[in-house]
Amino acid sequence: MDISPLCHPQLGAPSFAVPSFHVPWAAGSLLTSGIPSGLTALYQIPGGFLLPVHPDALSYPGLVGREELLALEPGPVFDVVPSANGRTVFVSAVDGTAVPEHLLKLHYPRRLSRFTRRLREPVIRAQLWAAEELTRAGLPILAEVCGGVFGSGDDAWGFIVRELPPATVAGDRFTVPLFALYGDDVQAPGGRSLVEQLVAAGGSPAGSLLAERIVEPMVELWVRAALETGCALEMHGQNTLLSFTPDLREVEVLYRDCDVYVDPALRARNGLTSLPPTGVISKDVPFPANQVFSLTYDSFMGHHALDYLARLARERLGVAPDALHAAARRAFTAATGEAHRGLLPDTVYYYDNELRPRGAWNLVNTGRRPQWR
C-alpha cells in the first residue's frame, strides 16, 4: 500500500481528518443514482458541492487539477475512520458535528495492491448506475447514492457516497467484511477467530452453519445478480459482508462496491437495455463474459474469500472443505438451472502476473478445475 502511516488502516491513528473544498458548478458536478437518500444533501452547498479529498491524494504531485483545487475555498473537515482498503473511509462527523454515518469512497491516484485507485467520472457514473440496477432487483447491497466529480474530460475525478446497512427492528446488528470471520484480531493475537465465536453462539454444527448461513447465500447472491442484472459482483472477502444479530437469529449476506463488470447479452435476455458508461463486457472489457465471470466467481469469491474460510474451518473446527464445496455446488446448480451452461468456463481464469499502466489487466487460463461450482 502506497499510503502514509497516519492513514494506514492498521498502523495509523484510529481516525484522521479528510479536507474538503467548495466546488462551484462551473468546475464540477454532483451526481445521484436515483436511490432516495438524505446523504446527498450533506454534500450540497449554495452554488456547488463539497469535494472531500484523501490527504494522500492531495499530497500527490501528479493529482490532476491540484493547483486549481488548492485555489478553491476550503470546506469543512470530515472526521473519518479508515477501512481495510485504505481509500474507503467511514464518516462520523463534519467539522466535529455528528452526521448520519456513511461510507465515502475517495479518489486515490496512488497504488493499493495491484492497481492505482483513481476514481474517474465514468467509473463514478457506472457505480451509481449499478447501485440503482441492483437495488431495483431487490438485491441486498450497500447502495452508492451520490458522487461528486471535479474537472472535465477523461481525467475528471471525485468521490462516491455509500449508505450503511439499515438499522433493524430486532435490535443491534453487527456488519463486518467476510475476512473478519477468519482473520486474526490485531488487538487480541492468538484469540479465537470470529467464525469460531459465531459457531459457538449459534448452537448449530459448524459445517451446517457455515454452509447454510454463509456459503450458500453468497453463491445465490452472486448468481442472482448475474442472471437478473448482468452484473458480475466481486464478492471477495472485503466486498462480501455478513450482517447478524448477537443471537444469530438474523444473519444476512450483503454486498458492497458497485464497481462491477456488466454483460450486455445477459441484460438483453432479460429485456434490459440500459448500460453503464464503462465496465461493459465486449465494449470496454476485451475478454469473453464467461472468463470475466470466472475471475469474479472462481477467483474473487472462491479463492479470495471462501478458500480462506474453508481453511480456517478445517484447522479450527474440523469441517472438511469438501463439505463446503459440495454445498456451494448444490447452491450454484439450483440457482442457475439450465442457465449455468456457458455462464462460466470449465477452468478458472485469473489475472496474469504483470502490472500495466492505467489499470490495464489481462486474464489467463490457470488450468485449475473450479471447486465452488
Largest sheet: 7 strands, antiparallel
Total DSSP helices: 9
Q: List SSEs in N-to-C order.
A: EEEEEHHEEEEEHEEEEHHHEEEEHHHEE
Outline, from the CA principal axes? globular
Report mean pLDDT, rounded to a whole number. 93
SS class: alpha+beta
Q: Give unreliable regions as ranges.
A: none
- Assess the beta-strand content as a share of residues: 15-25%
Spatial extent as radius of gyration: 21 Å
Q: Give the N-terminus to C-terminus distance in angstroms.
A: 33 Å
Give a count of the beta strands, DSSP E runs of length 2 or more: 20
Strand order across the largest sheet: 1-6-7-8-13-12-3
Helical residues, percent? 25-40%
Provide an overview of this structure.
The chain is an alpha+beta fold and 373 residues long. Helices cover 30% and strands 24% of the residues. It contains nine helices and 20 strands. A seven-stranded antiparallel beta sheet has the order 1-6-7-8-13-12-3, covered by helices on one side. It has a four-stranded mixed beta sheet with strand order 11-17-16-14. The protein has a three-stranded antiparallel beta sheet with strand order 2-5-4, with no helix packed on it. Strand 16 and strand 17 (251-256) form a beta hairpin. Helix 6 (206-229) runs antiparallel to helix 8 (289-317) and helix 6 packs parallel to helix 9 (321-336). The longest helix is centred in the C-terminal third of the chain and has 29 residues, at 289-317. The radius of gyration is 21 Å and the shape is globular. The two termini are 33 Å apart. The model has no long low-confidence stretch (mean pLDDT 93).
